[in-house]
Write a structure and sequence with these properties.
This protein is an alpha+beta fold and 261 residues long. The N and C termini lie close together (6 Å). The chain has nine helices and five strands. Residues 1-17 have low confidence and may be disordered. It has a five-stranded antiparallel β-sheet, sandwiched between helices.
């Protein structure tokens, strides 16, 4: 393998339709993955990326993103099924004024069957989403016992409402992730919970910088660069933020992230 040749063999093909039987199996497996995080120490960033990846893989959607509220109660993008600039921009616009904001402030799911019909309500979000071919969106709050900490957002290229079973599954996955973040033992320890959320938000900054460096080094897309980070972190039992910081301060050489032949 050439010095800067990389592979992302730990990825899987998510383009094929999922049968009803396979869907239920995958959904059960997703809950097991989320349940595995209910331990003293887990990588919250990897958890949230797992959540959006599983949503795209299982549900009838083309993209998913997850926002968490910062200390100023403003939503920030933490995880997305694609790290490419166009989709990230849509998610960020949504975080400023879009269905996810309504879901966060109202505490209830917001379903938009036809984004074009809502252009007056969310002009910037609607224009950006339609430009990339998205026509419907479903946003569900991440909440537990009345406390809303963020939103899960699903985008579809087809006009129409999300099927009820998919909407129920999305809410259940969002609830499971929320429980993982706000574990029972932390519910009354506000400082620790806040630190967990801040860690997820701050990690995004380090990861963005590392992705850019890897994309330039290996001449790959931002999606592929993120997959390199994630694969290396998992192989070495490290947090994503630790690996990203290592790339930034050069304590981890970029070449180490290339998967051996």
């Amino acid at each position: 393998m050439a010095d800067n040749e990389i592979t992302t063999d730990e990825q899987h093909d998510e383009s094929s339709p999922v049968s009803d039987t396979s869907r239920e199996t995958l959904l059960s497996a997703a809950f097991v993955k989320l349940a595995d995080t209910l331990v003293d120490d887990f990588d919250i960033v990897d958890l949230l990326h797992t959540l959006v990846d599983e949503c795209r893989r299982i549900l009838n959607i083309e993209a998913a993103g997850l926002m968490l509220a910062n200390q100023d109660e403003q939503l920030e993008l933490v995880a997305s099924t694609s790290e490419e600039a166009e989709l990230v921009e849509i998610m960020q616009i949504n975080a400023g004024a879009g269905p996810c904001v309504d879901a966060y402030t109202g505490g209830d799911a917001v379903a938009v069957a036809d984004i074009a019909a809502e252009q007056e309500h969310w002009p910037a979000f609607s224009s950006a989403a339609l430009a990339l071919g998205f026509h419907a969106v479903y946003a569900t709050p991440m909440k537990l016992r009345g406390r809303v900490i963020g939103t899960l957002n699903l985008l579809s290229t087809s006009v129409g409402v999300l099927e009820e079973r998919d909407a129920n599954a999305a809410r259940a996955l969002a609830d499971a992730a929320t429980i993982a973040i706000l574990q029972e033992r932390l519910l009354h320890e506000t400082t620790i919970v806040t630190e967990q959320l801040n860690h997820a938000l701050e990690s995004r900054i380090f990861i963005e910088q590392a992705k850019g460096a890897l994309a330039q080094t290996f001449s790959v897309s931002m999606d592929e660069a993120f997959q390199l980070l994630r694969n290396y972190a998992r192989r070495n039992n490290l947090r994503l933020q630790v690996v990203a910081a290592g790339i930034a301060d050069r304590s981890i050489a970029a070449a180490e992230l290339a998967t051996p032949a």
